Amino acid sequence: MIILVGWARSETPIGRGPEVTCPRCGHSGAWLVFEKKTGPTLYFLRLGSRKTWAAACPVCYCGAEVHSSEDRDRLLRADPRDSAWLADLIRSAETTSSQPEWGRPNR
Ligand SMILES: [Zn+2]
Predict the structure, then answer these.
(1) Out of 27, 30, 32, 48, which residue is the most buried by the measure of CB atoms under 10 Å away?
(2) pTM for this structure?
(3) What angle do CA 27, 25, 56 make, to 5 degrees?
């Protein structure tokens, strides 16, 4: 008997975030907000999942991940006053060695 175990990952766009200038490509505009679910699978069925959220540049797909629903709501409010907060979040993500990409089609 073969036991099929795996790892599932999905990203779903859930709205628009604050307007920000992308530190990687320079695009200015609203970033997209994604919900990411990851978790183990058994015979292609999810056994559970963990949710995180991210705002990502719609041009180059670089993004910043958040781990609380409060921060997700802050992204979705798209309040211009949160642009500085998002820019700081992006800058901190830029310092990591592997910058994740969000929403890139055909991955
Ligand atoms: Zn960009």
Answers:
(1) 32
(2) 0.75
(3) 70
